[in-house]
C-alpha cells in the first residue's frame, strides 16, 4: 500500500512577532501543497536533507526501524516564506509513522519533531493557530477562516529560515514591535471568531507594516494603496521570507484581475505567482483509492 500525506504551504503569516519575548506566528495556510508518498521497496526521490532528518527523527521517536521509499512532490517555492520545508517535514513525519506503525502522530508530536530540525510553521495543525515557531511554547487554536483568496506576489531573492532566526538584532526589533503586534493578534482573532475577513485583513496588514523594520518588502506601501482601491481587505507577508499576499474577501473578487494588472504596472519589483485560497490547515492522508482523510 502506498501512503500519501499532503501538507499545505502558506502565504507567509497572518501575524508574526513576540509577546512578552516569546516568539509566535499566526498561520496562513493556503491550498498549495506538498505531498509525501511512502512507497514499499522504493528509493528516496526528491528528498531534501531536512526531510530526511524528519524521517530519521520520526523513526527514533517511535523506537522503530525500517527502510522506506520516499517521494516528495511539491511546487511550493523554496526560500520564499511559503512553509515549503515545514510542509515537507510534517507530511514526512506523518507518512513514516503510518507506514511504520499504522498509527498517526498527534499534531503536537509532529511539532516537537519538526522543531528539533528548524523553526517551523504550524500549517499542519487543523484550523488557524497561534504557534511558537521556535520553541513550541504557544500552540493555540484560533478558529477557521471565512472564505478568502490571496493573490501571491514575490519580491525576489531567498531567505534562509535558520539564519534569519539567528539574527542578533531580531529580539530587540520584535520587542519594539510588540504593541502593534498585540493589536494585530486581537484583530485577526476577532475576525476568525466572527468570520469577518476585513478584521483579518486589517490585522495582517498591521503586522506586515510593522515587519518593514525587520525585513523590508519593496513596494509594500504602493501595494497597500493600490489594493485598497480594488477592494482588497488587506495584505499579508512572509515575515522571514520574500512573498506578500493581497487578500480578498471571496464574495467580493470583482477587482482581483484589475488589481493584479495594476500592481504589475506600478510595482515591477514584485512578481505575481498565483491566487490561492486561505484554508484551515491540517494534513490530508490519501489512500490508494484516492479517498482523502484529514
In short:
The chain has 294 residues and is α+β, with helices and mostly antiparallel strands.
Helix content: 25-40%
Largest sheet: 7 strands, antiparallel
Spans where pLDDT lies below 50 across 5 or more residues: none
Structural class: alpha+beta
- Overall tally of domains: 2
Beta-sheet strand percentage? 25-35%
By CATH reckoning, the class of the largest domain would read Alpha Beta
According to CATH, the fold-level topology of the largest domain is: Ribosomal Protein S5, domain 2
Query: What's the tally of helices?
Result: 9
CATH-derived architecture of the largest domain: 2-Layer Sandwich
* Overall residue-averaged pLDDT value: 94
The helix-strand sequence is: EEHEHHEEEHHHHHEEHEEE
State the end-to-end CA separation: 18 Å
How many E-type strands?
11
What coarse outline follows from CA principal-axis ratios? globular
Q: What's the Cα radius of gyration? A: 19 Å
Amino acid at each position: 500500500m502506498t501512503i500519501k500525506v499532503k501538507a499545505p504551504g502558506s502565504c507567509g503569516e497572518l501575524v508574526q512577532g513576540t509577546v512578552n519575548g516569546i516568539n509566535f506566528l499566526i498561520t496562513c495556510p493556503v491550498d498549495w501543497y506538498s505531498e509525501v508518498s511512502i512507497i514499499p521497496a522504493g528509493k528516496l526521490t526528491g528528498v531534501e536533507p531536512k526531510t530526511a532528518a524528519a524521517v530519521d527523527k520520526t523513526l527514533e521517536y517511535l523506537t522503530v526501524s525500517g527502510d522506506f521509499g520516499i517521494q516528495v512532490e511539491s511546487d511550493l517555492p523554496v526560500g520564499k516564506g511559503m512553509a515549503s520545508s515545514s510542509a515537507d517535514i510534517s507530511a514526512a513525519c506523518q507518512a513514516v509513522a503510518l507506514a511504520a506503525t499504522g498509527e498517526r502522530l498527534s499534531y503536537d508530536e509532529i511539532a516537537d519533531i519538526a522543531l528539533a530540525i528548524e523553526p517551523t510553521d504550524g500549517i499542519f495543525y487543523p484550523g488557524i493557530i497561534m504557534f511558537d515557531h521556535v520553541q513550541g511554547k504557544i500552540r493555540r487554536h484560533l478558529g477557521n477562516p471565512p472564505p478568502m483568496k490571496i493573490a501571491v506576489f514575490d519580491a525576489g531573492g531567498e531567505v534562509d529560515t535558520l539564519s534569519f532566526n539567528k539574527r542578533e538584532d531580531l529580539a530587540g526589533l520584535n520587542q519594539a514591535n510588540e504593541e502593534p503586534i498585540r493589536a494585530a493578534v486581537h484583530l485577526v482573532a476577532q475576525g476568525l471568531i466572527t468570520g469577518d475577513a476585513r478584521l483579518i485583513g486589517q490585522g495582517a496588514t498591521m503586522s506586515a507594516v510593522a515587519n518593514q523594520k525587520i525585513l523590508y518588502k519593496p513596494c509594500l506601501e504602493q501595494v497597500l494603496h493600490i489594493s485598497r482601491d480594488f477592494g482588497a481587505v488587506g495584505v499579508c507577508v512572509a515575515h522571514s521570507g520574500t512573498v506578500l499576499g493581497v487578500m480578498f474577501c471571496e464574495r467580493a473578487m470583482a477587482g482581483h484581475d484589475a488589481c493584479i494588472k495594476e500592481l504589475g504596472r506600478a510595482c515591477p519589483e514584485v512578481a505575481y505567482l498565483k491566487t490561492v485560497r486561505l484554508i484551515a490547515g491540517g494534513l490530508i492522508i490519501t489512500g490508494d483509492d484516492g479517498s482523502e482523510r484529514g
